[in-house]
Amino acid sequence: MTDPEAFVIVHQATTPAEAEVVLVLLKSGGFRARIPDHQTPLPGIDITPFGSLGGVGCDVCVPAGELEEAKSAIESARAEGGGAEEEGDESE
After folding, report:
1. Which residue, among 6, 18, 19, 17, has the nearest Cα to 62 in the 3D structure?
2. Is 11 within 8 Å of 74 (Cβ atoms)?
3. Other CB atoms within 10 Å distance of the CB of residue 76
4. What local confidence, expressed as pLDDT, does residue 36 receive?
5. Under a CB-based contact definition with an 8 Å cutoff, are residues 18 and 58 in contact?
6. At what angle do helices 16-28 and 67-81 cross, to 10 degrees?
7. Which pTM does this prediction carry?
8. 7-12 and 59-63 strand pairing
9. Which SS3 state, helix, strand or coil, does residue 16 take?
10. Residue 87, SS3?
11. Mean pLDDT value across the chain
12. CA–CA–CA angle 79, 81, 83 (5° rounding)
């Protein structure tokens, strides 16, 4: 069983900007969200010679005990915002 205080990935963003938006959304909802690589010099930017760290800074994490509620908050925000990725998807 996962420790409810251990941080787990709630969202894998495609860009650092998207990760920041999700982070702010979750924090404003009272979640203890964080971006693990947030303190790197250039979060989300691959500065390695051969691209071995691609995607750094694009994961948003919350404590495992908050995971399901955080996922619901993200889905609610998407539904309210009518994101481009959901336009035309009436299957839900």
Report:
1. 6
2. yes
3. 12
4. 84
5. yes
6. 110
7. 0.68
8. antiparallel
9. helix
10. coil
11. 78
12. 85
**Cα(48)–Cα(71) distance, rounded to whole angstroms?**
32
Give the integer Cα–Cα distance in Å for 87 and 59. Answer: 24
What the block records as the tokens of 29 is 């909802």
Per-residue confidence band for 14, with pLDDT thresholds at 50, 70 and 90: confident
Q: Which two tokens stand for residue 88?
A: 């035309």
What's the CA gap between 73 and 49, in Å, rounded?
Answer: 37
In the numeric block, which tokens belong to residue 8? 């787990």
pLDDT digits (tens, 9 = 90+) for 29-73: 999 999 986 655 555 555 555 444 444 558 999 999 999 999 999
Q: Comparing 53 with 18, which gets the higher pLDDT?
A: 18
